[in-house]
Amino acid sequence: MLRHRRTPVRATALAGAAVLVGVLGLAAPAAAHITVNPSQATVGDYARLAFRVPNESDEHSTVEVEVVLPEDAPVASVSLARVPGWTADVQVAPVDPPLEVHGAQITEAVSRIVWTADSPQDGVQPGEFVEFPVSLGPLPEAEQLVFKSLQTYSDGTVVRWIEVPVPGEEEPATPASVLTLTSAEEDSPAVGGGGQEPVDDEAPADDAATGSDAGESDTGGNGAALGVGIVGLLAGLGGLALGGLAFARTRRPTPAPAPVPAAATRPESTSGGGGSAD
Questions:
Q1: For residue 80, which of 107, 105, 51 has the smallest C-alpha distance?
Q2: pLDDT (tens digit, 9 = 90+) per residue, 139-186?
């Protein structure tokens, strides 16, 4: 009996372990390098991004992360969210020509951000990852932003994530993070899709505002007319029924209260027959 009870439990545990190993085995390669999330944003917008840094070492923690912003597509405004156990250092560089943001000329832009762990224990431990949130914008007119990164471990090892991925080709061994930029027109819903239908600007405002009310008014008028017609029909049928009943009563013979002599009844019978013929 004990063997029969242990067998399902042991099989379930083995199956769960196999599934866990399979999931971890599939997820590890996909999350091996530093990535930016989300990976797509709109030109001209302010984007909230997060650089996700996983630890590939089995023994050492990640103690420093350096992200370099692209020089060919500078961003005027960059702000950071506080990450517990980490200190951020923001470095700026001059931009030429200056960037114009909300009517102001910006002559310097953030060139790189360096996050340093306060201690090895605060760093990214083996088997873990940490996200470093960043808000930046307005996003420049470009197809993509490439963020090259350096990842430093507690033993001094530095991994350079600086290779630019090429669409359609195999991903490099140490790829940089890429933020794809799209225009506002590409992000807007297509006509006839899930979004709202466009409003005709040339249509009169009164028609657009009262179109449904007019339809309800027409429906109500037709219903009233139909109701009046039905009432009139019922009234006509009722009158016809009453007239037929009255006519039937006039045609019903009235029994004589007592027999009368034949001589007396003959003139009445002749008179009554002449009336029926008329």
A1: 51
A2: 999 999 999 999 999 999 999 999 998 988 898 999 999 999 998 776
- Angstrom distance (rounded) from CA 139 to CA 145: 9
Distances in Å between the alpha carbon of 218 and those of 207, 209, 213, 226?
15, 16, 9, 12
Residue recorded with tokens 């310097």: 108
HSE (side-chain half, CA atoms, 13 Å) at 116 = 5
Q: Nearest Cα to 73, choosing from 162, 179, 163? A: 179
Helices (H), the chain: 2-30, 184-187, 205-251, 262-277
- Cβ atoms of residues 179 and 144 within 8 Å: yes
- In whole angstroms, give the CA distance from residue 108 to residue 18: 53
Asked if residues 46 and 135 have their Cβ atoms less than 8 Å apart, the reply is yes
CA distance linking residue 180 with residue 73, whole number of Å: 13
Q: Check if the beta carbon of residue 208 is closer than 8 Å to that of residue 199.
A: yes
State the burial class of residue 104 (Cβ atoms within 10 Å of its Cβ: 0-12, 13-18, 19+).
Answer: exposed
> Is 8's pLDDT higher than 80?
no
Top pLDDT among 262 and 102 is at 102
Strands (E) located in 55-206: 62-68, 77-80, 86-101, 104-117, 129-137, 144-153, 158-161, 177-182
- As a whole number of Å, the CA-based R_g of the chain is 46
Tokens of 265: 């009844």
pTM (two decimals): 0.57
**Alpha-carbon distance values, 162 to 33, 69, 115, 167, 194 (Å):** 11, 12, 17, 16, 39
